[in-house]
Amino acid sequence: MIDSVSLIASTRSSGVPISGGASVSAAAGAGGADFSKVLSDVVGGAVDTVKAGEAASIQGLQGKMPLQDVVDAVMSAERTFQTALALRDKAVGAYQEISRMAI
Predict the structure, then answer these.
(1) Fewest CB atoms less than 10 Å from the CB: which of 32, 70, 84, 103?
(2) What end-to-end distance do the CA atoms of the chain give, in Å?
(3) What are phi and psi of 11, to 5 degrees?
(4) What is the C-alpha separation between 55 and 2, in angstroms, rounded?
(5) What's the rounded Cα separation, in Å, for the pair 58 and 70?
(6) What one-character-per-residue DSSP string does 85-102 give?
(7) E strands, the chain, where?
(8) Residue 9 has pLDDT above 70, yes or no
(9) Residue 29 has what pLDDT?
(10) How far apart are CA 7 and CA 44, in angstroms?
């Protein structure tokens, strides 16, 4: 499931870490960071977090990881997923609001 988003995650590069494990490249010159770059970094961080949660749950089922670590990883993945859904809902709402505007 997560591997279908690997194309977006493969565009990530190293940068300054932000909350949630995502990274944003430092702004070069006066131009600042490109929005598509920032978005791909955040999506890549979210994908990594969900992959870590999936891997932790599998290791927990096999008895290779303590239960507390499994719960932490799964809860982090759930928070990431809920944040992605909230952002999607806001983007859809903004698009609908723009589409209702009279030109």
Answers:
(1) 103
(2) 41
(3) -85, -5
(4) 12
(5) 9
(6) HHHHHHHHHHHHHHHHS-
(7) 16-17, 23-24
(8) no
(9) 45
(10) 9
How far is residue 58 CA from its own chain's centroid? 21
Cβ-in-10-Å burial (0-12, 13-18, 19+) of 25 comes to middle
What's residue 83's pLDDT? 93
Whole-model pTM: value is 0.61
pLDDT tens-place string over residues 24-77: 444 444 456 788 899 899 899 999 999 999 999 999 999 999 999 999 999 999
Please count the structural domains in the chain. 1
Half-sphere exposure of 40 (CA within 13 A, CB side): 16
Residue 78 contacts residue 56 (beta carbons within 8 Å): no
Confidence label for 6 from pLDDT (cuts 50, 70 and 90):
very low
